[in-house]
């Protein structure tokens, strides 16, 4: 599966990126890189930045919420109708898991598309086509701050990073693209490529109760019902754990965390089971 090229900073970008043509300015999302490809069998093959997973269940836990989102929302028929060979196309995006920015997780999709590779044409699709492509297969793409800006009119040194579309604060940065596939990134001064997180310093029971709230459980149970899925312990537990790990995995998995991940899973399971018992009793 095609790997995505590293995006250089504006200082290391191609020298002519800001001298000719037009630029698209996209919100840089503080997430985890995820790519996927529809197989002829109808199964979806996923990869992170460095590895490819033939079995979606082998994708690491922090990505599982995004894997489920893609599998449940991808319009396979629309994709088959749009291309001669579905395996010629690779989709790239961000699994929107917590890293340094606490986005509005209720609004923000688990996956946001960034780019599309066409093996047939041996090129990435131009930015003005990417949004339409993701829309056409049932997925959202990153938001566009500005399109078709004259390259000569763009000064990275004086450009102010806009507010994010996904929380009340500035975007992590801007990805700058042109139609020839050249890219650069400009980060907000409050953010950088290196980040630190404070590990959890609390009991497993307290932390599980903080995240496994009745409102979260009810929200996910309702989503299952709206999709005509049975609300069993297994299905609800799987989804609530994915939902929590989307927001908290990096702190839970921190080497200095006071919480053991396996114990945390058990506590989440116990709270999920208690919620279902109360729900079945009408309380």
UniProtKB/TrEMBL annotation:
It comes from the Archaea. Residues 23-182 form the RNA ligase domain. It comes from Natronobacterium texcoconense. This is RNA ligase domain-containing protein.
